[in-house]
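#lab-general

N.A. 3:47 PM
ok so I finally got the sequence cleaned up, no stray characters, all 152 residues accounted for. can someone with queue access submit it? mine expired

B.Y. 3:52 PM
send it over

N.A. 3:53 PM
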Amino acid sequence: MKESTHRTWDVMIKIGGIILTVLSLVFSFIHLSNNRTKAEQSLAKNLELWEYRRNLYSDVSGLIGKIITKAELKDSIEEEKMNFLTTYYGELNLVNDSIIKSPLKEFRFSLRDINYEDENSIRELRIKGQLVILSFRKSSQNYWKNFTNDHE
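B.Y. 4:20 PM
back already:
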């Protein structure tokens, strides 16, 4: 092979190598950007769900607090009781967390069966209300812990 032909091939191979390197870098950058975008979307979605859950738990905790504070006053808790039941059968079903399911049910049953004349019945309602609020706290902590572990 002539030396000029050899040089031509040598230069073409080097140029081809440079072009392939640049193309692979561009492809890698595009692929990395798409993966980062998906991860960022997942992070944003999970953060939004955590915020929703936190706000819902806060609202329901406020309702429970009002109910258990005025538990012996039957007529004064009817509005809060209806608001709680509406949220219980509505938005709280969207959360569907096993940590809160049982305490919520127990509180709902105590609220349904409360005897306003019986101090033990009122005490039971208050204890079960506090257990719901504690279960909200635990559920939020677990969700946040899992959320942050998944995105480290």
